[in-house]
Amino acid sequence: MAITQRVVTREGHTWTVLGSDLRVAEPVEQYLEYLRSERYSPNTIKTYARGLELWWSLLERRSQSWTAVGVTDIGTFVGLVRRNDLGNVTALRPGKPAEDSTVACRARAVMGFYRYQALRGVQVAEGLYETVRARPGSYMPFLEHIARKDGRRSSVVRVRVAPKPVPVLLPDQMAAVRSAEATWDAGTGSWLGELRYRLLWSLLEETGLRLGEALGLQHRDWKPGTGGTAQVEVVHRDDHPHGLRGKSGRRRVFVGSNLDRLYGDWVWALCEAGADVELHDWNSAYIFCNVHRGKRFAPLRAESVYKHLTVTKRRIGGLPDGMTPHWFRHTHATALLLAGVPMHVVSRRLGHADVQTTINTYAHVTEDVELRTCTDWQRIAKAWGASGDH
Question: Which of 167, 206, 296, 365 could form a disulfide with 337 if both were Cys (CB 3.0 to 4.6 A apart)?
C-alpha cells in the first residue's frame, strides 16, 4: 500500500508518495517535482500526492506497471474512488460514496501525471488524450481558431461536477463571530477579548482573502491609510515556516478605515505585549502570531485557526456546522456581485488567475439576480405594450 509522506526541506515542507516498499515512487516524484518547479502551493502538492497515492496503491495491488495502463484502467480507478471501494488504501470515509468534486480531484491528479509523462515521451500516456477540434457551429472562445488551429489535447477521462451554490454567511452571523472574539469597552478605552481573531475575521470578511494569504501577511504588507485609502498587499513568498503562501502572485486589496483602525489597535496590543522589543525586524514579522501558546510572536498556524473556530461555533451557537474560514471569502464575493460590482473587478480582488474561475464559481449569483428581474411580469408586459403603441 502506498502512502503520502510529508517531507521537510530547507525551502519548507512538501509531500511525496512512497510505495509499499517504503521507497519513493520515482515516476510520481518526478511529476511532483515538476509541480514544485511551477510554484504550486504545498497544499496543492499534497492534494495531487493523495490522488496519486490511491492510484499507485491500486497498481501495486494489481501488480500492474504504470506504463501498462489504458483508458479502462483509469475508468476503473474513477469508479472505485466514486464508490469508495478501494479497500484499505483510501483515506475517504468508509462506506460513504465520494462526492463528485472529490472524484474529479483524484482523477485530475492521475491525468495530470500522465499528461506530464506524455510530454516526456512516454508512449502509453499518449493513448489517454485525444485531439479535439471545434465542430462547425460549435462555440469557440475568442481567437480559438488561431490558438487551436491544430486542435487541443483533452483528457479522454473526464469527471463532470455539477455546480453547487457556494456557502455564505449572513451579516448577523458574521457580526456574532466578531463580537464573540472581542468587544470595545468604552470605560477602559480598550478591547476586551481576543482582538487577534476579531481582526482576522474582519479582514477575511472585508477583503475575501484566502486564509493562507491572511496568515502570510507581514506588517510591511499593510499600508495604513495615512492621507489615502489603506491597502493590504498580498505577496507571493516561499519562506513561510508553515508553508503558507499566496496563490496568485502579488496584488493590492484596498480596505476601509474601520478595518485599518482595528489593525492599528492590534499593533498597539502587540507592542504592549513586548513584540516591539522581542522582534528584531518588525517589518518582516507576521501580523497574525502566537500570543498565548507556543513561541511568542511566531506565525499562527492554519490548524490553530480551524481549532479556534470550532470552539467559537460551539460557544456562539446558530452557526452552520460546516462553516470554515473560506466561507468569508465566498460571502465577500457574493455580496460584491449582488451589489452590482462587475465580474472582472471581483475576480481581480479575489486574486483569481482567470476570470473564468470567478464565473464558474459564482455564476449562480449573477444568474439569480438577472432572473429575479423577470418576476415583475406585469411591469414588463406594460412596458412592452407601451413601446408597441409607437
Answer: 365
